[in-house]
Amino acid sequence: MEVLRSVMEQPVPEHTLLVEEDERMELPWWKCKKWAVHTLYRLFERYGSPVNAREEYVQFSEWYLTTFTGGILEVLLQILDQYRQKVYISPRVLQQTLSYIDQCVSHAHSWKLLKPHMFAIIQDVLFPLMSYSEADEELWFSDPHEYIRIKFDIFEDFVSPVTAAQSLLLSCCKKRKDMLERTMHLCMQVLTSQGGEYGPRQKDGALHMVGTLNDILIKKKFYKEEIDSLLSQYVFPEFHSQFGYMRARACWVLHCFAGVRFKSEPLLIDAVRLTVNALLNDAELPVKVEAAIALQMLLSSQEKVHKLLEPQVKAVTTELLHVVRETENDNIANVLQKIVPLYTEQLMLMAYEIMDHLATTFSKVIETDSGTDEKAITAMGLLNTMQTVLTAMEENPDIMSQLEKTVLRVVGHILHHNIIEYYEEAMTLLCNLTAKTISEDMWKVLEMLYQVFEKEGFDYFTDMMPVLHNYITIDTNAFLSNENHILAMFNMVKAVLNSDAEDESEVYAAKLLEVIVLQCSGKIDNCLRSFVELVLSRLTRKVKTSELRTMLLQVLIAIMYCNPHLLFTILDSLQESVPNASITQHFLKQWVHDIDCFMGLHDRKLCVLGFCTLLEMGPQRPNLDEILPSFLPSCLVLFDGLKRAYESRAEVDDDTSSEEEDGDDDEEVLSSDDDDIEQMNSDYLVNLARMATKNTAQQGINMTAKIEEYDSDDDEDDFEPDETAIECYTTPLDESDCTIDEYIKFKNILTTLSTSEPALYHALTCVLTDQQQKQLNTIFVLADQRKAQQDSKRIEQSGGYSFTVPAQVPTTFKFGS
Fold first, then answer.
1. What is the secondary structure of 786-811 as a DSSP string?
2. Which residues pair with residue 670 across a beta bridge?
3. Where in the cell is it found (predicted)?
4. pLDDT tens-digit map of 476-516
5. Which ranges of 302-350 would DSSP assign to H, the alpha helix?
């Protein structure tokens, strides 16, 4: 600590000032200081904070805080004092110094030492830093594109003194008494001054500070009341300023306060008029960018704006397309993603032009991409915007067929040139293009996907899954018309299941088989033997997860449901290779044994229908002696799960989120003796995760860092997802107009069985306890209700009596007690 302190204290020789300012920070003098303050910051963050330290460090951190804070703060305050006196300090040293002080705000001990100096820091360090500078001016005029890039570069935020200044300002105004009042007093002094000591650049700084504090101001009644007049008196006039940076700042402040409920409607109309005018007519590119983002924020926060913007939406969209091409800024792509779905009808005739513009810009971005992160972020933003356009226009087949060619140009380029970082987005676009119909060209794309799969292996199989599902389900007849389609799907599934990948792609592969079986029922019987062989060969090797095992079993259950005699014939014919055990019996026992591993609606419904199919087979069914005692209890487990899954789906359908009134939320400021605990803990973990991921990536190690909060008392077995992620890959059994109801079918079959095969019926039911018998009766009652509802629906659809209130099945019925 002493070494680090003395490195920070060491004066930098005069001769260093002869070096150009851009290169000065690279001198060893400033490099040493950068690493010293960076290390101090990390030590404090990691070990010096009693509220965040791990148990074994608590005692150490208390000692650390009291022993070192005074000495270190003294040196860092000297550095800020030098900056205040216009002595050169390198940007990184300044940034890390402010970050260190930001941490001090949260601790009572360090705050007491800092408190007497804090307002001077705000006034003489943070305020100048947050004002428009000489360097800004030079960049604005010499290279506006670079000016925009730096202002919006998220990676820049990690090293920028301005971002550190914003963060420190926010911390002390949020957490410590009087700081907000004194800061706002300073800002108002600057904004109300006429000429004199404060010029436009200082006004920019004051507005920057006010905008940075927007979250706190909106929550304090005293300030919340004044936001309308703040905007109308001090922000809106700057839209007409002779200085471009002030016009950009006006847009930025409006974006910060876009969520405020304006007390007067004319003010909102003014806000939209000024912003749209800045976007369409301002000569300076940075102003246009800020105006576009302000417009997006207004659209997101104020419903009335939707109507106000409508007359100019075409002009605005055209301008946004020009700006996104000119700046390659992904924030502008996000603005388009907001506008297109809101004004689908107005933009219909422009859809092709929009898509073509985005595609051309995308080509331009990737052609000039030298591997920088910004280019990749922009390219993804453009692809996501293309997806937004497709989603918005998907109900209009004529427009979709126009857009398809443009999108395929982009997707073809990505797949043909193996630009793997955009595969996920490319698959999403293909999914949009196959969502309603599948054109001739799109069937050719299936071939292309198969080639990608063969080249890249199964790394992208799960990304392809939604598109493959569409090919099977959207136009099944076309899918079946060419046996190469089925062969391609089967080969992909086979490659994944034989790869021993032991990850979720295997579950998805098995799901794809099940979808093919149920979707093409009765039309692919000649393929089913290959399906069965593949599934059995995978089941005989080690299966690590219950998800994969149940999914593989489900393929067999689906085949049995569609063609039971064929399944058991195939299983018997494979018997020769397994002399000592019956494959059929093994399958049935494994199925019953794993019954509680079938999750969600679809899997349980299929299981119930599978059990019904077994009972329906009559004398030709396989021997059930070994599973008879567990047969009905297994069905009860499934129905219990189904009840929960239906309830959960009903809840999701009913969930319309109600906008909560946000009242006055005067956040607690801390007294000088308090530490800020909660806040630091979560921030600390988030930063740590972020840094760990970033640092390991730089060393070429792939790592993800997640913060998982868990309560050790919770037994993880209690948690059961009601709908599994894989249920989005639907089959005919999941359609809303599916007439096959598992409750009705189950009741009908058992009722028939009681007279047609009384001995079997007795063997099935004699094992039930009183409790289980009650459950069975409940299922029968529910079956009758669902039957009545089905009948009503049928009569209504055929033009009979109509209900004014839709008869709902009470999904949350509670019987008995």
1. HHHHHHHHHHHHTTS---SSPPPP-T
2. 176
3. Cytoplasm
4. 999 999 999 999 999 999 999 998 777 789 999 999 999 99
5. 304-309, 313-327, 330-342, 344-347
